[in-house]
From TrEMBL:
Classification via Gene3D superfamilies: alpha/beta hydrolase
Key words, A-Z: Hydrolase
Species, as recorded: Azospirillum oleiclasticum
Domain Dienelactone hydrolase: 14-229
InterPro entries: AB_hydrolase_fold, Dienelactn_hydro, Dienelactone_hydrolase-like
GO molecular function: hydrolase activity
Domain of life (superkingdom): Bacteria
Name used for this protein in its record: Dienelactone hydrolase family protein
């Protein structure tokens, strides 16, 4: 486990946490952060992916606002900071940074040139956008937010996208959820699973809405998806 510096396409550079598998070269998975930065939860996900055989890279998407954000969901002060960062976040530049991260992965001798993404919350939105705006091989979105405003992007999804949708997501109105599900159903490259009774971040270990059974089911589907499309 280490940190690397990646050059942004529009100038500047940002940090990324890297976890390496035992066997290299390997497919790479870009882990896309929640609104709490590259924190222990995100690093843990990267470590888990490395144990599954992937070169896992988690870039700092908030670097233009405040480099090195590493907070939790445990205090109101941290939530306030996270939402303030989200308000300042430039989604389009974030997509650019994720593309730069994918390019960096492909340039490494430790990568076999296959690259996927997996994102959570804000990262789930960004994984959805990587599916529509990039050429990475496979993308996974966990309870993405703000997707109802992006349904026009669905026809542009040409590579496989797996979506994990919380039925009772407190950040996604039921009408918005159903609009997104209807839109992606028209694209055969998209597979969406709805987790009944689940709230936002049901797969975040230690979170208020963590559900072990739903998390295990979603993570198993993600593992199968990556094996199919990144091997």
């Amino acid at each position: 486990m280490t940190e690397v510096t990646i050059q942004a396409a529009d100038g500047g550079a940002f940090m990324a946490y890297v976890a390496k598998p035992a066997t290299l070269p390997a497919p790479a998975v870009v882990v896309i952060q929640e609104i709490f930065g590259v924190n222990a939860v995100m690093r843990g996900i990267a470590d888990d992916l490395a144990r599954q055989g992937y070169l896992a890279v988690c870039p700092d998407l908030f670097w233009r606002i405040e480099p090195g954000v590493d907070i939790t969901d445990k205090t109101q002060e941290e939530w306030n900071k996270a939402f303030a960062l989200l308000q300042k976040f430039d989604v389009d530049k974030g997509v650019g940074d994720l593309k730069s991260t994918a390019d960096w992965c492909r340039q490494q001798t430790e990568c076999n040139a296959r690259v996927g993404t997996v994102g959570y919350c804000l990262g789930g939105k960004m994984a959805f956008l990587m599916a529509s705006r990039s050429d990475v091989d496979a993308n996974v979105s966990y309870y993405g937010v703000g997707l109802v405003d992006l349904v026009g992007e669905v026809p542009n999804i040409k590579k496989p996208l797996l979506m994990h949708v919380a039925e009772l997501d407190k950040f996604v109105a039921p009408e918005a959820r159903d609009t997104v599900l209807e839109a992606v159903a028209a694209n055969p490259k998209v597979t969406a699973h709805v987790y009944e009774g689940m709230d936002h971040a049901f797969a975040r270990k230690g979170g208020d809405h963590f559900d072990a059974a739903a998390s295990e089911l979603a993570n198993g589907r993600t593992a199968d998806f990556f094996r199919e499309h990144l091997s």
